[in-house]
Write a structure and sequence with these properties.
The structure is a single chain. The protein has two domains: 219 residues, PPM-type phosphatase domain (Phosphatase 2c, domain 1, 4-Layer Sandwich), CATH 3.60.40; 165 residues, no CATH class. A six-stranded antiparallel beta sheet has the order 2-3-4-5-9-8. The model has no long low-confidence stretch (mean pLDDT 89). With 390 residues, it is an alpha+beta fold.
Length: 390
């Protein structure tokens, strides 16, 4: 057991003119500290490729997570999936990344571009062994993990980017390594690194991908706890208990809401110091309390964070906004999306009288829904979430 964890980000570009992607990624957790990631690339594009890749990734990830060996996985795929009438091949290509107890990585690859490992900001050539299974050459590797290791798995759409357009022979693996190395030591999340890579692929394709293009980035990092408090407790007598639990937790502390911040300031015996700066006119200004890492307004700010979270899980286009802005929502987004791995929510159930104005689109149920939806988004980012209500 150690304090390392996997930060995973992935995204796909569909073949130009296709509604379905012929690549598919499946992630299965074996336990709290072991996880299986499968990237499958179905033959061709469109519906047939989508079905082949989805079945392949689902079968492999499920069997691997259950502890079965690769020989059984490959033979099962060959026996299960239909044979392509044109190519005479039964299944898609695939890449398997299995992280065991956050100590060791097992990489199994068949006919996809080989996984790139960036270690200490440089390409690291890890050892590979070749096994013949059913006439297919399967490459296997075992690697002891280090903090800040970055694994990049790709479908062949990445190395085909720019073929016949900006590049004669496509964007070769060595070129991708050279492009990604400068970003390895910056501290970007896996999702951001993945977005950088896929955006460059899209540019090389001129915005019209000639193949389904998928990349999955896994970054090994240390766990970072984070605590967010929003709303006073339904019973005022529980204020001290709620604050004691909140401030006793390891990690940074975020306080959201006017009444909540007043209670926190009183508990800490520190003054609440509002600011009048509006870096974003849509987000109320932040405040400051000594001993608290960030103090913001409540519902409006969290609603903005939720929108950023939903976009982060989609195409991550809003990153250009929240990655540098100083408003409360952008600061919370950076703390929760980029820094935190384990997030504790402390949610007060008290009804805010200000939210009972019928002219305002805010009520108690909306506040609870925002917290629930944000928690769900953060779980999909791979965060460990715990929500405590008072």
């Amino acid at each position: 057991m150690n304090d390392l964890c996997t930060d995973i980000g992935y995204r796909s570009l569909n073949h130009d003119g296709e509604q379905l992607c012929g690549d598919h990624i499946d992630i299965v957790e074996q336990d709290d500290d072991s996880i299986v990631v499968v990237l499958a690339d179905g033959l061709g594009s469109g519906v047939k490729a989508s079905i082949l890749s989805t079945l392949t990734s689902k079968i492999i990830s499920t069997m691997m997570a259950a502890g079965m060996n690769i020989e059984d996985c490959v033979s099962t795929i060959a026996a299960t999936l239909p044979v392509c009438s044109v190519r005479g091949v039964a299944y898609s290509t695939f890449t398997i990344l299995r992280f065991v107890q956050n100590r060791e990585a097992e990489i199994i690859q068949y006919d996809n571009p080989h996984v790139i490992l960036l270690r200490d900001g440089q390409n690291y050539e890890y050892p590979k062994t070749v096994t013949n299974i059913g006439g297919k050459e399967i490459y296997s590797s075992r690697i002891t993990l280090r903090e800040n290791d970055i694994f990049i798995a790709m479908s062949d759409g990445c190395i085909h980017a720019g073929v016949g357009m900006k590049l004669n022979f496509g964007w070769e693996r060595k070129d991708i390594i050279h492009f990604m190395e400068p970003f390895a030591s910056v501290g970007f999340t896996a999702k951001t690194l993945d977005t950088i890579l896929l955006d460059e692929c899209s540019k090389l394709y001129g915005g019209h991908p000639g193949d389904d293009t998928t990349a999955c980035v896994v970054r090994i990092r240390r766990r970072e706890p984070m605590n967010l408090l929003i709303g006073p407790p339904s019973n005022p007598a529980d204020c001290s208990k709620m604050m004691s639990l909140f401030f006793s937790k390891e990690g940074k502390h975020i306080v959201c809401g006017g009444t909540t911040s007043s209670i926190a300031a009183e508990f800490l015996h520190k003054p609440l110091m509002p600011t009048v700066d509006y870096p974003d006119p849509e987000v109320p200004p932040i405040a400051r309390i000594e001993g608290v890492d960030l103090v913001t307004e409540g519902v409006i700010t969290i609603n903005k964070v939720l929108k950023y979270a939903q976009d982060y899980l989609a195409d991550n286009q809003s990153y250009e906004q929240w990655s540098y802005k100083k408003d409360g929502a952008s600061q919370i987004a950076r703390l929760l999306f980029e820094e935190a791995t384990d997030i504790n929510f402390y949610v007060g159930r008290a009804v805010n009288p200000a939210h009972q104005n019928p002219n305002l689109p805010i009520n108690f149920n909306i506040k609870m829904r925002l917290v629930d939806e944000l928690s769900t988004c953060l779980k999909q980012m791979g965060k460990r979430i715990k929500v405590s209500y008072f």
